[in-house]
TrEMBL record:
Classification of source organism: Bacteria, Candidatus Uhriibacteriota
Domain of life: Bacteria
UniProt-listed Gene3D superfamilies: NCX, central ion-binding region
InterPro entries named among the record's database cross-references: K/Na/Ca-exchanger, NaCa_Exmemb, NCX_ion-bd_dom_sf
Source species: Candidatus Uhrbacteria bacterium CG_4_9_14_3_um_filter_50_9
Name of the protein this chain belongs to: Sodium:proton exchanger
GO molecular function, one term: calcium channel activity
Length: 318
């Protein structure tokens, strides 16, 4: 049991450092190729922060631990919304751009709705099992492409803060990318092995261990980035980064995972998907309560309480 816990912790460290190296190397390569900062910020850096979820999910799917994959995505999105934004809002009020409120958050609601539809076969057409098929995975990826094209279409250089990107030598850039991928792959493998061992040791479901322990670890890059951005006053990066990650996880990570192996959607996973959808809708509604387009300490406190309340519910549920 202790060995499994150490494996999970070591896996998290490798995942986080691997993602950091991968982002640094990829961003440096992009700038060497003359790609604008706006494009780098919307693609390389956003994707890099979600790399831990992606690698954990792919490895879990290859090994047949599909419940862990689903729990990881849903738990990560739940943690990003309520825990990440909740903690950031405690440091400073979060003012949102109009584009985030009316375009990106509604798009994240659409992504959550699609997951609910694809995972509700029994509810919608009376067939079993509930499963996200490969064709539905392709549909999720297609919507992700639409989101990327849409984002590039509506974002203007002045709307998003310029990313400070350090350009390294060619050898260092290549070394960072390769080291990052290696760290992500090894970290993902160790995390999955340790998490499955913990689930078996405690006699709990892989979905629960993915929803709680694994999701908390893979969400750390986004949560830490959000808190640091809030403390430094980079408010636009906080909510925009979190919402972008939610969409990436729901559409790209889950879509790619479903291509590797169709994902059975158990009743608990359906409940968790409704919870994520509810948290996203709560985020949208909270922007119209009190100071418009702002998340303050009150909203942040409520988000944190809701997060821990649901985690307790999930643990009791088993």
């Amino acid at each position: 049991m202790l060995t499994n816990a150490i494996m999970v912790l070591a896996g998290f460290i490798l995942l986080i450092k691997g993602a950091d190296f991968f982002v640094s190397g990829s961003a440096s390569l992009a700038r060497k190729l003359g790609i604008p900062s706006l494009v780098v910020g919307l693609t390389v850096i956003s994707i890099g922060t979600s790399a831990p979820e992606l690698f954990v999910n792919l490895i879990a799917a290859v090994q047949g631990s599909t419940a862990l994959s689903i729990g990881n995505v849903l738990g990560s999105n739940f943690a990003d919304i309520l825990l990440g934004l909740g903690l950031a809002a405690l440091f400073t009020p979060l003012a949102l751009q109009k584009g985030t409120v009316w375009k990106e958050i509604p798009f994240s609601l659409l992504a959550g709705f699609m997951i609910l539809v694809f995972g509700s076969d029994l509810l919608l057409d009376g067939t079993l099992p509930n499963i996200i098929t490969r064709s539905e995975g392709i549909a999720l990826l297609a919507l992700f492409v639409v989101f990327i094209v849409y984002t590039f279409g509506v974002k203007q250089p002045g709307e998003q803060p310029e990313e400070h990107i350090e350009v390294h030598s060619s050898n260092k850039t290549l070394g960072l990318i390769l080291s990052g991928v290696a760290g992500l792959a090894i970290g993902g493998f160790i995390t999955v092995e340790g998490a499955v061992g913990l689930a078996e040791g405690f006699g709990i479901s892989q979905n629960l261990i993915g929803l709680t322990v694994v999701a908390a670890g893979t969400s750390l890059p986004e949560i830490i980035t959000s808190i640091q951005a809030a403390r430094k006053g980079h408010i636009d990066l906080v909510v925009g980064g979190i919402v972008g990650t939610i969409i990436f996880n729901a559409l790209f990570v889950l879509g790619v995972t479903a291509l590797v192996r169709p994902l059975p959607f158990a009743a608990d996973s359906l409940t968790d998907a409704f919870a994520v959808m509810g948290a996203t809708f709560l985020l949208f509604l909270s922007l119209f309560i009190g100071r418009k387009n702002h998340l303050g300490k009150t909203e942040g406190t409520i988000m944190l309480l809701l997060y821990f309340a649901y985690i307790i519910f999930a643990v009791v549920r088993g």
